[in-house]
Structure formats: structure tokens, C-alpha cells
Design a protein that fits this description.
The protein is of the alpha+beta class and 325 residues long. It has helices spanning 24-30, 37-40, 46-55, 187-191, 214-219, 273-282, 299-306, 315-322, and strands at residues 63-74, 89-103, 109-122, 125-129, 132-134, 141-143, 147-149, 154-158, 169-171, 174-181, 184-186, 201-203, 205-213, 232-239, 255-265. It has one domain. Helix content is 18%, strand content 32%. The strands form three sheets. Strands 1, 2, 3, 4, 7, 8, 9, 10, 13, 14 and 15 form an eleven-stranded antiparallel beta sheet that branches. Strand 3 and strand 4 form a beta hairpin. It is globular, with a radius of gyration of 21 Å. This is DUF1838 family protein.
Length: 325
């Protein structure tokens, strides 16, 4: 998922019992310098308190958004037919974002520190993680590189008693947070590589809807709740094809359409074995949230770092070296 440093929630099961610290001053006396609880307890507005819980747990421990969906070919006018038809389901999309709320020591600044790993899977079997994929446009087979962003941070949020993130919408029995975001990143300026994009500029549309049941909201609107808020989310992204596919956006009138759901988990241990096994084997750093803020990544900047050796190779070189057939 792309990096957006503005006050919005990202990808995001069990209702948890409410436990409250018996007062902000007492909490502050016991709190570690990075503990978000004392700052969180200052906020008066109910909707803002709930939206901060969408970002992370007020008790400062990790929570996850389990992400599950699919990626489709979006080709207006069916311009890639017959090799790649509009609406083709290219991949399943399975993984998670792990996160926590973090206070900058000695300040009123609150961050959401997150990292995310999401695997491209067999479109017919979401539990089968793909290692390679054959591009029907050029007939070549390429390694599949998952989303693996070590840092995707949000904030800082300057917390005061009157801090507000905006009202939630009431839709039947749910409170809903809506975030429609148009990311734009000049990848050529940032990395020196155009990635087959027009002028090296990445643009996308990302649409998020976060749903909180009104009973869950009422239960967790006071004090400093422990555990993860029960949140479900719907997410759509229209963006260039991921870089491992080796399809230059400037050469085709088409892009990738992501459609996924996500929901909160209280622990990494709640993930399914097929995800946990892959993370243990190849991505162990993603078992916990970051320890401190760092520059945020996207699928393209992490690809540039890991696959292109931070510029030792160009994207075009990578495609030429790795395409078989």
C-alpha cells in the first residue's frame, strides 16, 4: 500500500473487554516515555478517540489488520485483449499490516508506526503464495515480489484535549470513517528510476471505508482501552501494475485494480499458518511493528531498495535479467 503522511487510517476480530487506567496522572506516572496511553486519555472527542483506535491500540501494544482480496486487470476499452482481458483476476492478495501507537518522548506527538507484508497468491487458491508469474503480454516468466514495506508511518498527531480528526458517519448500526486519497510520488526524483511510468511519476487512487459497530464504539469510548478495537475495512486501489510484472504504464492503457477487505487482530499469532510460515521463513522483521519513526516506503521504493540494490540496477535491467522464456 502506498505511503500517505496525513491523518487517515490504513488497512484495517474479536470484541475485547474494556479496561481503564484509573486516571491520566496515574497512568503517566507508570508509563514508559513512548506509551501512548497518557496522551490518548487527554482527548475529549469521542469520534477522535475511536479513530485513534483505528490507528492502533491505546495500550501501546501491536495490533494487525489482516488483509484479504484480489488484483484485477483494469483495461478501459479492453485494449490489451486478447492476451490480457479487461477484468482478469491476476492474483489473490493476502497478508497484513502490523502497527502500534507510539509517543515521541517528552512531547505531545503521537504516531502510528506500521509495516506491511502482503503476498500475491494464486487467483484460484488464496492460500497458495506465488513464486513466479507469466506475463501474457510478453510471454516471459518473472519472480513475484510481495508488498514488503518496513515502515509506513502516520502522524505526528499533536495531541491536546481538543484535538479532532473529524466526525464519523452513522450508517445503520455502524460508525464509518471514509478516506479517499490520491497518492502522487515522483519516483524519478526520489530514486532516479522511472519504473516505466510517465515522467517517472506514480499516481493512484485509494479508497478506504472503516466500519465500527456502534456497540463496540460505546464499549470503548472511555478510559484507555486495552486490546484492539474491532474494525472492519473495505479498500480499493487503482494504480500502475506492480513492478515485478514488468508492464510499463506509459506503454499500455491499463492498470491494476486492487479490492480487499481487512479486519483487526489482537496478535500476530492469530494469523493463518500459510502466512505465518512464509513470514517466519522469509520476512521475520514483519512479526512486530517498528520501534520508532522512519521514512515511509511503498511497493516501488521497497522494490528499488531490495530488488534494484538502491539503484545498482534499473527497473528495465531487472526485467531483462529476470524474465524467462
Amino acid at each position: 500500500m502506498s505511503r500517505v503522511r496525513v491523518p487517515l487510517a490504513v488497512l484495517g476480530v474479536t470484541a475485547l473487554a474494556l479496561a481503564c487506567v484509573p486516571g491520566a496522572a496515574a497512568a503517566g506516572d507508570r508509563a514508559a516515555p513512548t506509551d501512548p496511553g497518557p496522551l490518548y486519555s487527554m482527548v475529549k472527542d469521542r469520534d477522535t478517540r475511536l479513530q485513534l483506535q483505528v490507528f492502533g491500540r491505546p495500550d501501546g501494544r501491536d495490533m494487525l489488520y489482516r488483509i484479504s482480496g484480489a488484483v484485477y486487470a483494469n483495461a478501459p476499452g479492453d485494449t490489451l485483449a486478447p492476451k490480457l482481458r479487461h477484468g482478469t483476476r491476476l492474483f489473490g492478495f493476502e497478508g497484513y499490516n502490523i502497527r502500534r501507537l507510539w509517543r515521541e518522548p517528552g512531547t505531545n506527538k503521537l504516531y502510528a508506526l506500521t509495516r506491511e507484508v502482503v503476498f500475491y497468491t494464486d487467483p484460484k487458491d488464496p492460500t497458495k503464495i506465488l513464486r513466479e508469474w507469466t506475463n501474457p503480454l510478453d510471454g516471459k516468466t518473472y519472480p513475484v515480489v510481495p508488498v514488503n514495506n518496513l515502515n509506513v508511518d502516520f502522524g505526528p498527531f499533536p495531541i491536546t484535549p481538543d484535538f479532532r480528526l473529524g466526525p464519523l458517519n452513522q450508517v445503520q448500526r455502524n460508525l464509518v470513517q471514509v478516506s479517499d486519497i490520491p497518492p502522487r510520488t515522483d519516483l524519478k526524483a526520489r530514486t532516479g528510476d522511472e519504473f516505466g511510468l510517465a515522467d517517472g511519476v506514480y499516481t493512484a487512487m485509494e479508497m478506504f471505508d472503516f466500519y465500527i459497530d456502534e456497540h463496540e464504539a460505546a464499549k470503548r469510548s472511555h478510559g484507555v482501552p486495552h486490546g484492539a478495537l474491532e474494525v472492519s475495512n473495505s479498500w480499493v486501489r487503482s494504480s500502475p501494475f506492480p513492478p515485478f510484472m514488468c508492464v510499463a504504464e506509459k506503454d499500455v492503457r491499463a492498470n491494476a485494480l486492487y479490492h480487499a477487505r481487512s479486519w483487526t487482530l489482537n496478535s500476530w499469532n492469530e494469523l493463518e499458518p500459510f502466512i505465518k510460515d512464509e513470514v517466519e521463513r522469509s520476512y521475520p522483521a514483519y512479526k512486530k511493528a517498528p520501534d520508532a519513526p522512519a521514512p515511509s516506503e511503498s511497493s516501488w521504493t521497497s522494490f528499488w531498495r531490495d530488488q534494484l540494490g538502491s539503484g545498482a540496477l534499473t527497473w528495465t535491467d531487472w526485467c531483462a535479467r529476470n524474465g524467462r522464456g
